Amino acid sequence: MTRVLVIEDDPAIGRLLQRSLADRGDVVTVVTDGASGLATALQELPEVVLLDLGLPDLSGLEVLTMLRSVSQVPVIVVTAQDDDRTVVKALDSGADDYLVKPFGGEQLAARIRAVLRRVAAAEAADAVIQVAELQIDPITRRVSLADHQLELSRKEFDLLWLLASRVGEVVTKRDLLAGVWGQPFGGADRTVDVHLSWLRRKLGETAAEPRFLETVRGVGVRLVDPGAAN
Ligand code: CA
Prior knowledge:
Blueprint: E1 3-7, H1 11-23, E2 27-31, H2 34-44, E3 48-52, H3 60-70, E4 75-79, H4 84-92, E5 97-100, H5 105-126, E6 129-131, E7 134-137, E8 142-145, E9 148-150, H6 154-164, E10 171-172, H7 173-181, H8 191-202, E11 213-216, E12 220-223
Parallel strand pairs: 1-2, 1-3, 3-4, 4-5
Antiparallel strand pairs: 6-7, 7-8, 8-9, 10-12, 11-12
This protein binds calcium ion.
């Protein structure tokens, strides 16, 4: 179930979109001009906006520009004009995707799923990860342990981030070499082990008495929540 705002002045197309989306269980609001579209977008906080480019009051591109100054909601532009210039302008103005009329309900649903997936992936990539008292912020690249800030090198941070974003999962040394050092075929060198031991020291633990970083002999390492039952 997705909250969708449709900004479309053609009543027949508006009804068609509403029916097609409501059939999938979406909650749909249809408005027929740009000003109402902006107001509704701010009031109802939809998850996706379908925006017709030819509106009676403002142009769809104007609506898009104004919307983008206050909201990051995904916008799929719906246009009868399939000329490249219009589409390029819409994408440059912050549209996430576009559909050229006429289009089927299946394609509409697939485009909506695709933008929502991208949004979810982007949000997950930006989210602070918290494992017990360990907190890792990918934007500021700050790491704190029980409210004490840790000073990590760039590689130590990348290593910790990779492990934390797959918490509970054993990550092979090969994957760590590829993900952190960009060496997909790295084999015998001790780079990972050395950085892991530095990271352990900063986390206040040792290989013999691990808390967060658990070595799985011959396989790799995983980051665990020390408070959680295994
Ligand atoms: Ca129109």
